[in-house]
UniProtKB/TrEMBL annotation:
Cofactor(s) named in the record: Zn(2+)
Gene from which this protein is expressed: apeB
Naturally occurring in which organism (per UniProt): Sinobacterium norvegicum
EC number(s) reported in the record: 3.4.11.-
GO molecular function: aminopeptidase activity
Pfam families: Peptidase_M18
Entry-linked InterPro entries: Peptidase_M18 (IPR001948), Peptidase_M18_dom2 (IPR023358)
Protein name: M18 family aminopeptidase
Keyword Ion transport: no
Domain of life: Bacteria
Keyword Membrane belongs to the record: no
Amino acid sequence: MDIQQFNRGLLSFIDASPTPFHAVSTMVATLTKAGFVRLREGDSWDLVAGERYYLCRNDSSIIAFVCGKQSILDHGVRMVGAHTDSPCLRVKPNPDMLEKGYLQLGVEIYGGALLNPWFDRDLSLAGRVSLTNDKGELISVMIDFENPIAVIPSLAIHLDREANTNRTVNKQTDMPPMLAIVDGDELNFNDIVIAQIERQHSDVSVSKILDWELSFYDTQPSAMTGLRQQFVSAARLDNLLSCYTGLQALLQADGEMTSILVCNDHEEVGSSSAAGAQGPMLKHLLQRMCQTTEDFARVIERSMMISADNAHAIHPNFIAKHDGNHGPQINQGPVIKINANQRYATNSETAALYRYLSDQVDVPVQSFVVRSDMGCGSTIGPITATELGVRTIDIGVPTFAMHSIRELAGSEDAFGLHKVCWQFYNTSDLPWC
C-alpha cells in the first residue's frame, strides 16, 4: 500500500463512519473480508494459533487480533489502542421543539466539542435506534439520513455587534438544529425516525420506537486540501484516523506475534463505561488468552500498548500556546506525548522503544509537552496502563482544530504512524521479553 492509496482509504473510512456504531460496522466489514472470525463474549472460545478474530461490545467498541504463532508467555502481545467516538451533538430523548413554526431538536453536547464551527453547516443525522417490530421482537438498527436535513443558523452580525469580539455559545439555547418549517402539520421526530428506518431497512416494520443514540454530523466530504494537497481535512480525525491506521497495520501483520487492535467508545467523556477503556473488555480478552493468573501476569510484563490519539500541532497564528521546544509540526512525523503528571502514559522506556521502531522504518518522530502553565488533556493510555499494568506509550498524529466539526492533519503523518505500528506488530522481541 502506498501513501496515496492509504489516504484515499482513510477518507472513505471517515465518510462511512459518522458515528461509533458506523465506524465499528465499517471495520467489521473490512475484517470479515480479510478472513477475521467473529467471537462473542458469551460463547466458549477455542483460539487457534495463526488465526484472526474480532469481537464487539455495544456495537461501538471493537477488538481485532491476530492469534500469533509464537508463545505469548515468551513474547507477550503487541497492542495498539484508539477510540471510535468524537465530540458531537446528540439528540435528546424528547427532542421536539417548535418555535415560530420551525421544527427544532433539543441536543446534548457529547464531549468537549468546539461549538462555534457547528453553525451554518449542512448537517445530517445517524446512529442506533432500538425498537419493537410488528412481530413484537426487540431489535436495534443503524440509520443514517446521509442528506443534509438540518442546520444551526448563526445570528446575523447586525443583531450581535460583538459577535467577532465577545461571542459565547449557550449549549441549551443556541445549539438546537432546525429541521423544517411546519405550518400547522403534525410533524414530529419520532415519525421522522420511523420513516427513515422503513426507507433504509425494508425488512423492518416498526411497531414502536423505544430509544435512540443519534448524533448530528457535517455532510461535507473528507478531502485532501492545500495548494500542494499536504493536508487531510475531515470530521472525526480525532480519533478515526488512529482507528484506520491501526486497522491497516493489523491487516498487514505477519501473524508471528499476537497482535491486538482495540478501539473503544466513550473516550471523549472519560472512558468510564462497559465499552470504554476503563471497562473490562480488553482485560477479559487477555485473561481468556491465558490459562492462569500467573500466565496473565507474565504476559503483561512482556507486552506493550501504543495508545494512538491525535496530538496538538503548533498553530502558526497561536505559537504562544505551545512550549517553545515542543511544538509538533504537520508532516514532520507522529508525536510522542509526554506529561510528568501522568496525563499521558509515556515513560522513557516506552518512548525509547517507539523511537527505535521509527528508526527501523525511517519515520521521523516529534515530542509534545504542554506548557507548564496550561492544563493537559488525556487519553486511553493512562487508563489502560492502570487497568492492565502494561507498559504504554501515548503517541498521535499532529492536528489542527481538534474537537472542531472539521479537523486538519497532514497527508504524510498518518501513513508514517501506520508504518511504525506495522513494525511494532511484526517485531519478534521487545527489550523486556
